[in-house]
Amino acid sequence: LWGQSNMGAEEPNPTGSQRPARRRSLFNSIKFFVLCHSLLQLAQLLVSGYMKSSISTIERRYGLSSQKSGMLAAFNEVGNTVLIIFVSFFGSRVHRPRFIGGGALLACLASLLMALPHFLSGPYEYTDHISHGKASIDNRSAVCQSESNLNIKPTNQSCSQQDNPAQHVAYPLLLLGQLLLGIGVVPIQPFGISYIDDHASKRNSPLYLGLLLAATAIGPAFGFITGSIMQRFYVDFDKVSKDHIHLTPKDLRWVGAWWLGFLVASCLIFITALPYFFFPRSMPKEEDADDVESSPDCTKQRPDPIQELSLLQFLKSFPHVALRMMRTPIYLLVILAQVNQAALLAGLATFMAKFIEKQFNRTASLSTMMIGGVCIPLAVVGTVLGGVVMRRLNLSLNGASKLCAGAIFVCLFSSLPLLLIGCSTQTVDGVFPPGSGSLSCSASCHCPEEAFNPVCGSNRVEFRSPCHAGCNNIQFGPHNQPINFTDCKCVGGLGFASPGTCGSGCSHLLLPFMVLLAITSFVTSFTQTPSFMMILRTVPAEDKSFAVGVQYMMFRVLAFLPGPVLYGSVIDTTCILWGKKCGQQTSCLYYNLDQFRSRFLGLMAVFVGGALLSFLLTVRVLHRGAKTLQRRIVGII
C-alpha cells in the first residue's frame, strides 16, 4: 500500500500528452482523509461532551462536591494547555496522520480508564434500601424505631463493611483519564487541519474545513444526547438483577449508568483511529481548474518561518511574539471578549443541566437532553449564520466589531430575565427555611444522621426520610415497592407521607426558561466567526500561526481551566445540607434555590457583560484609529 503512494500521478509520454491517471489508493485521497477526520473528531468530542453531561451523576455516585466535579470537568485542559504550544513547532516535521492516530488511541485508553472506577467499585449503596417488602440491613433509616426495637451496629463496624478501597481511587482515576484525554487530543485538530490545507485544492479547502467545524460542533451535542440515554439505565444494571432495582430516575438518589457511554465512545475512537496508520506522510495535492490556471508563482507557498526554527529557538521566541501580539489593542480586546464567552460556555456546558435538574425538579436525563438537543444545536446554527452574515455583507474590521458588540448586547437582554425565572426551595423539615422544623417529634425514632430517602408529607412538607417524618408503617405495592408511609407523627399528628420529593413547584417555568436560554446560546455563538476573523486580520501574516496558538492557550488558561472550578465553588456556597457517609462529607443534598439561581446565572451575566465591554472598547479603538488615519490623509493632501 505504501509503495502505491504516487500511483495516482499523471505521467507524460514521449508525444508530450499525458497518460490517463491510474486509480488512486483510497488512502491517497484527501476526500477520504476528510471523512475519517470528521468521524474521529465527532467521536473524540463525544467523550468531552459526555463527561460534562455525566458530571452531576458522577458527583452523586462518588460523593463529590461541585468544586471537585468542576475540577474533574476541566482537568483535560491541563495536558492540552501544556502541549498545545508545541503543535505549531512540529507542524509538517512529523508524520501527521500517524501522530493523529497515536493521539486517538491514547484518547481511547483514557476513555476506558474513566469507566474503570465502576468495575473496581462495589454496588452503589444508598440509605433506606428496602427490598422484598422488608427493611434491609439499615432498617433504622426506613421508619421510626422505638428504643426497645433498636438494633444499632457500631458505626465503625458498619463503615468497615461498606468501605471499599476502590472508592478512594475513583476520583484520581477519573482525573488521570481526563489528563490523558487532554494529551491525546492535542494533535488531532491542528495536524488534521494543516494536513488537509496542504493537500486539498484551493476551491475545496474551505468546504473540507467547514465539514470539520460542523463535526466539531455536533460532537458535544451527541455527547450530551448519549449521556441523556445512558442516565436512564441504573448504574449497577450489570451487577444486580432487575428485581433488586427499586429506584426510579425521578428519585433524588438515582444514579444512571454514567460509565457505559465511555465504553461506547472508546470503541468509536478506536475504530476511527485505525485508518490514520495507513495514510502517507504526504500525498499528491488535489487539483482543480483554478489550480491548473494559476501561475507557478501564485501556487508556490511561502516557507513557514516557524518550520525554520529549532525547538530551542521556538521556545525562546514564543513569549516574545506572544507579548508583541498582546500589545496590539484590537487583538488583546478581542481575545478578552472571547475569553469571557469561553468562560460563559464552560459554566453552561458543565453545570446548566444540574441547574435545570434542581431548579425545575426534572430528571438528570431530561436536563441533559435540554442542553444537547436544544442549546448546542442552536449554538451551531448561530456560528454558521455569523459566518454567512460576515461573508454576505463583506464586513470590514470595524463592521465585524459592531456586529459582535450588537449581538452581545442582545445576549445581555436575553440572559438577565433568566435570573427571575425560578422558585424558592420547597419546605424541608429542619433544613429550609433555616431554623424551622419539628425534629424534636422524631427524636425518639433515633434516625441515623446519614439517612436520605426524601418523602413528601400530606401537609406538603418534605422530610429527609420516613424516619425523620416519624412514620411507623409502610404500605407496599404489587411489586413490593413502598407506596406510602403511614402513622407519621411529624405530619400533622398521624398523617401520611409519599415516597419522593415534594419538588420546588417550578416545573411549568421550564419552557420560558429554555426559550430564553436557547436565544442566549444562539446570539452568543453568532459572534464566533466574526471575532475569529478579526484576530486573523489584526496580526501580520507571518504571525497568524502564533496568534491562533496564543488564542487557544488563553482560552484554556483563563476560561476552560478555571471556569468549571469557579462555577462549582459558587454552587457549593448555596448548599444548605451536605450528605454524610461514615462521618465524611459527600455531595450536596439540598440547595438554596434562590441563591443557586442568582449566583450561578449572575456569574454568567458577569461574563456576558465582560464580553460586551471588550467589544465596545474594540469599536472605540477602531473608531479612534480611523479618525487618526483620516486626519493624516487630510494633512498630506
From TrEMBL:
Keyword hit for Cell membrane: yes
GO annotation (BP), single: monoatomic ion transport
UniProt xrefs under Pfam families: Kazal_2, OATP
Keywords: Cell membrane, Disulfide bond, Ion transport, Membrane, Transmembrane, Transmembrane helix, Transport
Ranges where the Major facilitator superfamily (MFS) profile domain occurs: 33-622
Kazal-like domain location: 435-504
Molecular function as annotated in GO: bile acid transmembrane transporter activity; sodium-independent organic anion transmembrane transporter activity
Membrane-crossing residue ranges in chain numbering: 32-51, 71-92, 99-120, 173-196, 208-230, 257-279, 330-356, 368-391, 403-422, 513-536, 557-579, 599-622
Membrane topology label: Multi-pass membrane protein
Stored InterPro entries: Kazal_dom (IPR002350), Kazal_dom_sf (IPR036058), MFS_dom (IPR020846), MFS_trans_sf (IPR036259), OATP (IPR004156)
PROSITE patterns: KAZAL_2 (PS51465), MFS (PS50850)
Cellular component, GO annotation: apical plasma membrane; basolateral plasma membrane
Primary location class: membrane
Region (Disordered): 1-21
Keyword Transport: yes
Location of this chain's protein in the cell: Cell membrane
Family membership noted in the UniProt record: Belongs to the organo anion transporter (TC 2.A.60) family.
Protein name as annotated: Solute carrier organic anion transporter family member
